[in-house]
Design goal:
By secondary structure, the protein is mainly alpha-helical. It folds into 2 domains: 34 residues, no CATH class; 89 residues. The protein is 51% helix and 0% strand. It is built from 4 helices and no strands. 13% of the residues are buried.
Length: 137
């Protein structure tokens, strides 16, 4: 695919790779050369991205869950305005896929959290014994 731009892979039942994955491999080959490291780097990068996404969603879920139980906790005190607007519209009413689609674009923003929920003096959400264990860090 990298050497012959007109080449298009043929998909059969025996091929378990999707087209976008093959194109990512082509990009890795161009970046790192045709090595096993290039192929493995795609899976490693996707694995790291998945872990970071789950950490962000877990922290957000715990913070919003604590706010639902304790009226003294206001999510606007912790989330930046853009992150709060994205979270407010989807977290309570939709499925995980829609939550991810709404929050991933703003997750990389440096002001996603304006105050760390684990260290805030209002409650240190991560250390309160009456909160879910998922909030502990």
């Amino acid at each position: 695919m990298a050497r012959e731009p007109q080449y298009r892979p043929i998909y059969t039942d025996g091929v378990n790779s999707t087209g976008h994955y093959l194109w990512l491999i082509v990009g890795a080959f161009k970046l790192f050369g045709e090595t096993t490291f290039a192929v493995r780097s795609i899976s490693a990068a996707m694995g790291i991205a998945t872990i970071l996404e789950m950490v962000m969603l877990t922290r957000l879920d715990c913070m919003l869950g604590a706010a639902a139980e304790d009226p003294a906790i206001d999510p606007r005190d912790f989330l930046g305005p853009e992150a709060y607007e994205a979270a407010a519209g989807v977290v309570e009413d939709t499925c995980l896929g829609e939550v991810i689609a709404a929050l991933v674009p703003v997750a990389a923003s440096p002001d996603f959290y304006v105050t760390d929920p684990r260290t805030d003096p209002v409650g240190s959400l991560g250390s309160r014994s009456d909160r879910s264990s998922c909030c502990a860090s």
